[in-house]
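Recap from last week: sequence in, structure out.
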Amino acid sequence: MKTIAVLIGLAGVVSAAALPNMSARADGMQSWVSSTGSGATCSRAQPCDSFLNAHAATFSGGQINCIDNGNFGFVVITKSITIDCSATFSNVTAGVSGVGVAVNGDGIIVTLRGLSVQGYGQQAIGIDLINAAELHVENCRIAGFGGLSPGHGIKVEPGNGITTKLYVLDTVIADNGLANSGGGIIVQPAGSGSARVMIERSHIETNTYGIFANGTGSTGVIAVHVRDSVIANNGVNGISAFTQAGKSTTSIVVDHSASNLNGGSGVLSQGAGGFITLKDSTVISNGTGLTAANGGTIFSYQNNALTGNVADGAPTAVLTLK
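Predicted structure tokens:
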């Protein structure tokens, strides 16, 4: 009986000794920012005032939370992390580089939720996806990036040998771009970089270009799926797949979505290796509805609305619903 009692006592001592480390780890998995915060502790009781400090205080796989609606500056994300401001819809503003959020870490998984990423017409890029396994942008607003080049709301630019995935859900991307370039979502890998992009239940409006997949700088694959979304009132083209022979196969599927009221083409596929597939979608009141140029291909499932454009254009091939 004495032996059992001693063992139980030792177990209690070991458990008690382990508690501080467990507590420290729990704190490191959650950090907080507040408009009245300061310092770099970033605990719930002592929140910090910037996403940059909170990122430094949070372990990989952890989460940054917003206590109230504040302006928490820019952040460079280099680890798997979630920033969740769903309850407060807090602000991100670009730093000296002109970038609001830069995501750059090999194999990381990042979620940005409930953020207002603001460029105020003076900055370069809202969210710059350089390197990550996955970036999830949910219930955000990204607007006003156009004062500095390149003027991108979201830029997807994986480099040589990098494959990245972007998921955009329930998000508004508006008022981004320069006079004749830039825009809402620009997918532009380099070298052999590849990108896979899913855009769902989102509005990409009043940018220079809406969704622009540019494969001319890479030999990797660009695959974009747009579902239940509106791409409208952009100055040039709404949805563009742009590439050339020997460069990235650039494919966009437009599913139950609308590309309307754009100044150029509602849908443009340009260059051999450029493919756009339309299913149950609307292309109305654009300068040109459908444009296929230099070997680009536009497939239609024959259940789309194509009318009321200055020139409607036509798909290059039709598919049968199955």
